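User: What would this chain look like folded?
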Amino acid sequence: MESLVEWFTAHGGTYDDAAMQLTDLEGHGRAAVALRDIPEGHTLFTLPRNLTLSTRTSALPGLLGLDEWKQHELHIGWAGLILCMMWEEAQGASSRWSTYLASLPSSFDTPMFWSPDDLEELKGTSVVDKIGRDGAEEDYRSKVVPTLQSRPDLFAPEALSRHYSLENYHLMGSRILSRSFSVERWEGHAADKQEDSASSPVADTGRDEAMDVDTEAVTATAPEAEDGVDEPSFVVDDENDSDDEDEEDPANVAMVPMADMLNARYRSENAKLFYETEDLRMITTKPILKGEQIFNTYGDPPNSDLLRRYGHVDLVPLPNGDIGNPADIVELRGDLAFFSISERHKQPVESSAERVDWWLEEGGEDVFILETNHELPDELVPFCRLLLQSQSEWEKTKSKSKLPKAKVDESILSTIANALERRLAEYPTSVEEDQKLLTEPLSLNRKHAVIVRLGEKRILHGTLSTVKEKLKEMSGGQGKKKRKAEDDHEKGRSKRRGAGSR
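Assistant: Here's the prediction, encoded as structure tokens.
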């Protein structure tokens, strides 16, 4: 890793080699370790903005031309950045990022590269549907291949099988998924210098959602081009092309050398990447003792996301004595409640479908997130209540364009309990079977799959227990009310009988 540090400092980066060392740690891979006690607020390293690798800093978009870039839809999604990374790698030593690219992992333990048998172990989880292999290969065929064929002057035919293969496309995509950051656009040197002292954290894209970012971010500016590498002649930003205003601008996704060497672990962050006007800085956010690992943050995602993005899982002690990831979640699809209501209440599917369409148009979700606190998601109760309304109630709700209140009753709780049971039935194994499996020798992939699905099942069982307990309380309360009403009625009859006898 000495060559990476030498390359980094030779291209304008600073690196405190008295405070931090890059090394290999068993069970962690490459990592950064403190060489001495480091105080909070200490800058571990800095790098100029144009040392990040993105569609803004690579020369390829400018060489290809804006019209052709957009013609092949390289400004949408990650295809453009992946192509830039493949192209930069193909340039060899003439690319300013050649040493950096050579330092990146050449293999991953993520499900993207699992065998069909290993993927079967993830049945029931939402991981399989989010791997995105088919979508990535479609982008490769529809966007990248036509670009390669149209410009043999940029993509040498003899390099296609080595640098521009589908396998390398998946590799570069996995590097982005696991190691990229979100770095906002810089506007030039016109930014007020009085703001230079302020800074805000750079978003580690997570790689699907950004981590916590200071909303009062300093406007970034572009530094002077170095080493004969000019800034691209245009910026590949096309915010108006996105139908989703919240969707991340692909041009913001960047590979950030050195920053991606830091590992992450649940609630262990002690350093964060901040951006300033002309550079990015990795700054400690709490004191770090000599010998401790320096951790960045991925935003504490669940094990399902950790496995899909990075190929590992987090295991820490849980309050109930188990070991797992406190950030684990389960996705409960709305269709499970939909079909539960349709079957149990003999409600026409067409009627329920109309309500679901209206719900989505009003901004409701079709997937509800269950967490380790076993509480019902805010929107799940109104969604079930909407499906259970009588026709007249539904017409009234639709006319007022107002979502039902989140008020539970036995019918709502019974529906949710049935939906949870349906969700549990999607796993091929039980909690007990998974717990037993973890005591046996397993391949790394299978072990990770068992940990992911076991964490999800625990949430489902815990939430189901909560629902059943509420049902029991509610049923008991109704029984008490019924018995009280019967007692009151009997007392009334006794009084009437007594009055008659006089």
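The domain at 329-484 is CATH 3.90.1420.10 (set domain protein methyltransferase, domain 2). If you want, I can go into more detail on any region.
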